[in-house]
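Regression check, succinic acid case 281:
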Amino acid sequence: MSELQIRPLSALMGAEMPGIDLAALTDERFAAVREAFHRHKLLRFPAQRITPEQQIAFSRRLGELQVHVLDQYRHPQHPEIYVLSNVDAATGRTIGHHPDKGTLTWHSDLSFQRRPALATLLYGIETPSAGGETQFADMAAAFEALDDAMKHRLAGLRAVHDLDVSRTRMGEPPMTEAQRRQTPPVAHPLLRTHPDTGKTILYISRHVSHVEGLARSESDALLDQLMAHATQSRFVFSYRWQAGDVLMWDNRSTIHRATAYDTSAERRVIHRTVVIGDVPV
Ligand code: SIN
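Current build output:
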């Protein structure tokens, strides 16, 4: 077995692990991946060639997988895979828009659920030559940098996360009645404790509709202030995709978004799996 390499991607977060084949990972290597995941929050595995079955099998080693309520994005044969593609499967041509506009704004995956995401894995099958990056913001660092008055103010506050609100806000069609019934709004603390590191995390997301107990104007102002603070460049790492990359990140301690690209000229086909985590406390 080749020697395990872990190279930092930036001073803020992230590491790449070249030479790893996610389709054939020993238990020993998997333990090293898990340890690196906790340490670096974001991992890159370059040059992968994995089938949907192999992506699902690797993701399952981290925990239970989400079958997303938005069935229009599910892979037809593998419902655990959420297809983020601007290429029409029937014609093979680009569709001229990004598939899920909500992913272009800062969010933490599945924060609209009682048990949000622990980890997300994206497999870049076709990736753009310009734009279409994925950006990550470090929510432990963002919390640390808040002043004491704000830390005190946020303690005990809960935010309501609502997928339907966040989708319509981004210009996507409203969810169906059945989808809404499966994902009623849910409240989570604005500050959560990371279950593995014990660190306090600022838990915000575009899925938040409002902060409980605050007037709407006060809630909007607070959420805007927190998002502007947390996404300053000093907390953000941008990743430029290469085909064959698998990225895997911790949704409990980061938020992320995709950046714009030319959706007519560039092809961006990504398979996503999401591992469900704990109820935030
Ligand atoms: C996501 O929001 O889960 C996907 C982000 C991306 O497409 O870069």
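Comparison notes: Residues 84, 103, 109, 120, 134, 256, 258, 270, 272 surround succinic acid (CB under 6 Å). The CA atoms of residues 70 and 176 lie 9 Å apart. No diff flagged against the previous build.
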